[in-house]
Write a structure and sequence with these properties.
globular; three-stranded antiparallel β-sheet; Jelly Rolls; 14 strands; alpha+beta; single chain; 2 domains
């Protein structure tokens, strides 16, 4: 846990100023721009901030969890001292943390972002619009997306939406998730392609926000805020459990992949057509894409 004094703003302050700007102009601003506005208004703070105890969350009330997240202190140095650059209408982001968990801030601008991290977006409540080079997708409650490092994206949420973002940089992921990289399942295959073959396609799942999933999120926030000598180990362990739950959710579709050396959408076409034959009366493009863990616009082009 941080024990030294520093300049900071609260996450809730950033949310409020982003909401204020959007209501006045109809346009979103970046997280960094929002922090800079708070500093220009003299709204930042100095000292040793109090940090929320996420272990007191009872797992049932999302409003209480949101209040805790809004009390998270954001050191100005973590935002303003980190170099970003923009090229070809894409902003290349950087962060000081090897891993982090956060609530996705509302009303972002339309700029595409690139970050050298594995990015997980999980819709705990509400919706969000995720845009990649393959198209735009409105993600619903319970939907989860994993993007490979260096994948251009933008994500739009409103203040009432609850989207959890988990970031792991490439080096940290390779060093801490060996077992995950060498298993035979959809998720492990995705990570191998993302980290070693520079794949740029996202993968999607439906993960019901059960009590177990909410408990994992609770502990991830708790360990991220503690920052003691054990928190990094515990954070990684809880993240392993989170990925294991994602892998468990894919068991019903894994048999379509297991017998194929190349697991691209094109080589899966026979399995996709077979699934269509058996489910043609009720199938939709979104359901088909979700079942095979692909973006609907990408799958639509292949079909």
């Amino acid at each position: 846990m941080r024990t030294s004094e520093y300049n900071y703003v609260l996450f809730g302050q950033v949310q409020k100023i982003k909401q204020s700007v959007f209501e006045k102009s109809g346009e979103g601003i970046s997280f960094q721009d929002a922090v800079e506005r708070l500093v220009s208004l003299g709204s930042h703070r100095y000292g040793i901030p109090a940090t929320p105890d996420f272990l007191t969350w009872n797992l049932k009330n999302y409003r209480d969890l949101r209040k805790m997240i809004c009390q998270i202190p954001i050191p100005l140095s973590d935002v303003l001292d980190v170099k970003h650059h923009t090229a070809d209408n894409i902003t290349y982001l950087a962060t000081k943390n090897n891993v982090q968990i956060s609530l996705e801030s509302c009303y972002a601008d339309n700029q595409f972002f690139v970050i050298e991290y594995v990015a997980v977006f999980y819709v705990l409540e509400g919706t969000c619009v995720l845009t990649t080079e393959h198209g735009k997708r409105t993600m619903q409650a319970g939907e989860l997306c994993i993007l490979p490092p260096c994948t251009p994206y933008s994500i739009f949420t409103r203040p009432e939406d609850f989207i959890i973002t988990i970031l792991s940089n490439k080096a940290h992921f390779k060093n801490n998730f060996h077992a995950l990289l060498y298993q035979e399942n959809i998720v492990s295959d995705f990570f191998r392609r993302a980290l070693f073959q520079n794949q740029k396609e996202g993968i999607f799942f439906m993960i019901s926000p059960t009590k177990d999933i909410r408990s994992i999120i609770q502990h991830l926030f708790a360990e991220f805020m503690k920052k003691d000598s054990y928190s990094s180990i515990l954070f990684n362990n809880y993240l392993q459990i989170f990925y294991a739950n994602i892998i468990r959710s894919t068991e019903s579709t894994y048999h379509f992949y297991s017998s194929r050396k190349e697991k691209t959408a094109k080589t899966l076409m026979p399995a996709i057509l077979e699934y269509l034959i058996h489910n043609y009366q009720s199938i939709t493009l979104e359901r088909l894409a979700m079942h095979f863990h692909y973006e609907s616009t990408y799958l639509s082009k292949l079909l």
